[in-house]
Amino acid sequence: MNEQPLVLGIESSCDETGVAVVRGHDLLSNVVSSSLDEHVRYGGVVPEVASRAHLEAMVPAVDRAVREAGVALRDLDAIAVTAGPGLASALMVGVGAAKALAVTLGTPLYGVNHLDAHIAVDVLEHGPLPEPTIALLVSGGHTSLALVRDITSDVSLLGETLDDAAGEAFDKIARLLGLPYPGGPMIDRAAADGDPTSLTWPRGLAHARGGHRPYDFSFSGLKSAVARWVRERRDAGLDVPVADVAASVQEAIADVLTSRAVQACRDLGVAHLQVGGGVAANSRVRALAEQRCATAGIELRVPRRGLCTDNGAMVAALGSELVRKGRPASDLWLGTDPSRPIGEVHVVPAPRETVDA
């Protein structure tokens, strides 16, 4: 077992081209090239624009990551790359680049799960992940609760959003309020001047019903309630108090996320909660998670904000854990899976039939 593997990580699942180098649990470099400004005018990420930006940014990002880490490509013990979930055309750019490097260098290749990588990145901040840990993953495309017994091989889904992800709800509500994309940071900023108790919004799925798991999430009702309220105000010729709406919406989302995560810890007897994904950068989510975990006697782990959003460090971190645990590398048949579920941590080579000549 290599306890300090040198791993290059490549992330291209959405609009960030991320390349990073880690040695064991030490982050040596973390380069992120974002095409966000190109998507703002569309109010969301355009896959074709994102993949073109990845093509332009990939080689410079790899060069810079290796240079800042003070290593050479030939020194690498492994290359890790996001193989899903994500935008198909964007994922293909990263996987193609990783394959090219792996072939050229003769280096093992690991195709990893984007969601599990959001959990693994915490080892770069706080050291080895306690086993077991409950992980709350919150982003623009995903909202999930998982039980992590081993980040490299045993991650079980406890619940997920049945409709909009939390970050998606932030984006859509921000648009209703006339705030620019991306909506999450804009809602967080506007909420600082608002009263979170001024308006009350639905929480959704407070109890399991109709086959739903007790840890599932739903944010479509919240989004619809806000849209209806804003429309009625405007139809009546009244101003919309943007700061108060932002603060109360943020409170509703943070309340649901943190209460369900802490409840899962209590129900399963798990003393550690890790929060990851882009929405983990939200100030109210972080503060309420700290407050509730302290009250419940749960140890909370949240990476610094720069490691919550998509980046190559999280991919390299998971790759490093896979190497350390001696997990099998992927092969050059590695493909992409835009809907790869959490828990399918990395792509293991499938047995292939041989054809006699």
Question: Could you walk me through the main structural features you see in this protein, from its secondary elements to its overall organization?
Answer:
- With 357 residues, this protein is an alpha/beta fold.
- The chain has two domains: 6-125 and 308-325, Nucleotidyltransferase, domain 5 (2-Layer Sandwich); 133-302, ATPase, nucleotide binding domain (Nucleotidyltransferase, domain 5, 2-Layer Sandwich).
- It contains twelve helices and ten strands.
- It has helices at 36-39, 47-69, 88-105, 114-120, 123-126, 166-176, 183-191, 220-235, 242-268, 283-296, 305-308, 312-324, and strands at residues 6-11, 16-23, 26-34, 78-84, 109-113, 133-138, 143-150, 154-160, 272-276, 299-301.
- It has a five-stranded mixed sheet, with helices on both faces. It has a five-stranded mixed sheet with strand order 8-7-6-9-10, sandwiched between helices.
- A hairpin with a 3-residue loop joins strand 7 and strand 8 (154-160).
- Helix 2 (47-69) packs parallel to helix 3 and helix 6 runs parallel beside helix 8.
- The longest helix is centred in the last third of the chain and has 27 residues, at 242-268.
- The chain is globular, with a radius of gyration of 21 Å.
- The mean pLDDT is 93.
